[in-house]
Design goal:
Shape: globular
Structural class: mainly alpha
Number of domains: 1
Radius of gyration: 20 Å
Oligomer: single chain
Largest sheet: 2 strands, antiparallel
Number of strands: 4
Order of helices and strands: HHHHHHHHHHHHEEHHEE
Distance between the termini: 46 Å
Length: about 325
């Protein structure tokens, strides 16, 4: 699983793959909740929409930076894989970018538009959010299927698209449980109860389909004694889902205590699912077609890029942490206190 750290040709591709994987995971969690808030927009009234926007206002731009970082690392560290993946997923990537543009424009314009136009920008914010989530889920499904384009893989990609969008709405609801109070918080609890199935279906579908796609992955997960050592991942995920369901049914807690806990637990579930997926595909950057070592740039180039990454990544992480610290606490209508 781990490379020979005395050989730059082995540890540098592994380091960049790990960094890219970490960036994608952070993006899925952080931009996942603000996409989820956008998906939930039609279920709220106008005053609640303002508070929902207030809950993500200081963070959503920084959250998307992690996606830019991940794609940039793929391009400079694994250019062959970048060309193979992006050429296959060109259309859903294009749709995702349209969705992100719609979200960004609507986010800014809805706060400045006349009352008669505000509904239009609210609808576009929802549209951009759901389009982005669905396209990301569709890309995930095709990637798991080895970038094969058949009716069966398209059907699976459609399932993962819907499940990821509902999963985003769930993590968005848990974020609102933490960042809001009163009637909107009660609504967020109800939304979380309804959308938890998205996480269950999504993780279940991926977990069942991934070993069936490749005999290599099947053997890696189900051969003894490997299966014994990997058992804690699905077992712990199942226990966290059960705990999350029971917790949400009891919320809000008296005095709004531990309102952050559903979001933290859902983050852990996403992280466990991602770790399992990463384990399944390593060392391939394109499933069963191209390894990170075959796709990597020259070690000399990777080393230079690594020097830059040592400055860029801590900077992105630092200002993200600072933003979450400064704007901690409950969100009011486009204000924070």
């Amino acid at each position: 699983m781990f490379p020979d750290f005395s050989n730059p040709a082995e540890w540098l591709p592994w380091a960049f793959a790990s960094l890219m994987g970490f960036s994608i995971l952070v993006y899925v969690i952080l931009d996942g909740f603000d996409l989820g808030v956008g998906i939930l927009f039609p279920l709220a009234d106008d005053a609640e929409k303002d508070r929902m926007i207030g809950s993500i206002g200081p963070f959503w731009d920084a959250n998307e930076t992690w996606l830019v970082l991940a794609v940039g690392l793929l391009l400079v560290a694994f250019p062959v894989a970048h060309g193979m993946i992006l050429s296959t997923l060109y259309l859903p990537v294009f749709v995702m970018l349209i969705g992100l543009i719609l979200r960004g424009v609507a986010f800014e314009f809805r706060a400045k538009a006349h009352a008669k136009h505000k509904r239009l920008w609210n609808n576009l914010f929802f549209t951009g959010s759901i389009v982005t989530a669905l396209s990301q889920g569709f890309m995930l499904g095709l990637y798991i299927m080895g970038l094969q384009q058949t009716p069966a893989t398209f059907a699976f990609a459609t399932l993962t698209a819907v499940a990821l969008a509902v999963g985003y709405s769930f993590i968005g609801a848990t974020w609102l449980i933490h960042k809001t109070e009163g009637e909107l918080q009660l609504k967020a609890v109800d939304w979380a109860k309804r959308s938890l199935w998205g996480i269950v279906v999504g993780i279940g579908a991926v977990s069942l389909a991934t070993p069936l796609v490749s005999t290599r992955i099947f053997d890696r997960w189900l051969d003894f004694p490997t299966a014994f050592w990997l058992a804690p991942i699905p077992v712990l995920s199942g226990l966290l889902v059960i705990w999350l369901w029971r917790m949400i049914r009891q919320m809000p807690f008296e005095g709004d205590r531990r309102s952050w806990l559903p979001f933290a637990v859902s983050t852990a579930i996403f992280a466990l699912a991602y770790v399992g997926l990463a384990y399944s595909f390593y060392p391939y950057v394109v499933p069963d077609r191209l390894t990170i070592y075959e796709a990597a740039s020259a070690p000399e180039s990777l080393f230079i890029i690594l020097v830059g990454a040592c400055f860029v990544v801590p900077t992105i992480a630092g200002y993200s942490i600072l933003a979450y610290y400064i704007f901690r606490g409950k969100a009011a209508a486009l204000r924070y206190y």
